[in-house]
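Dear Dr. H.,

I hope your travels went smoothly. While you were away I took the liberty of generating a structure for the chain from your last submission, since the lab meeting agenda had it listed for discussion. I wanted you to have the full record in hand beforehand rather than looking at slides cold. The sequence, exactly as received, is reproduced here:
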Amino acid sequence: MQVKLHDSWHLLLQEEFEKKYFKELIRFVKEEYQNRQCFPEEHLIFSAFEHCHLNDLKVVIIGQDPYHGLGQANGLCFSVNDNVPLPPSLNNIFREIETDLQKQFPKSGNLERWADQGVLLLNATLTVRESEAGSHQKKGWETFTDKVIQKISEEKQDVVFLLWGGFAKKKGAKIDRSKHLVLETGHPSPLSANRGLWFGNKHFSQTNAFLKSKKKSEIVW
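The corresponding predicted structure, in token form, is as follows:
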């Protein structure tokens, strides 16, 4: 299995690739993909880093696991392939964008259009077995993605981190808030959103206002 990231990320994360845990992780993932149905497709595992280069990075959104249904996951958190029905969390994300920005509800749940503008859509775990949520957790992915977040916090300036739900908040706990904007709210899943913990957070307009204040181009959500 090839670890394919844009050169800007390779320079930042090269030390991680040489560590024992990462080599064991890649061996595990390679074996899983050979013997089981896993998602996303192997060539899309590092898609978040391919679409969003470190030099262009403006926003980080942290998810948990890839979707584990056939044809859904495309390597970007919360995102699904074109022509796939919207999962409930993504539907609620789009509903918040619609009211926050008075923007027409998107037709496609493929968020590559965000990633290509500098939004890193990072799952904590980058792979999963079909129909087995969390099946690739605690194999090393979390260590790797923690390091990604740490390196971004250290090396970049004025990045917006969107932490949705308790898991993301915990994962982003060590972000340097003196250098970056960290926005927190409940998870967009129906369980959280229906309890009043998601809608009305205005994260998308707040993100764009911050980027504009730093003379950066806004995200077309």
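Two observations you may find useful: The chain has a mean pLDDT of 96. The radius of gyration is 17 Å.

With kind regards,
E. W.
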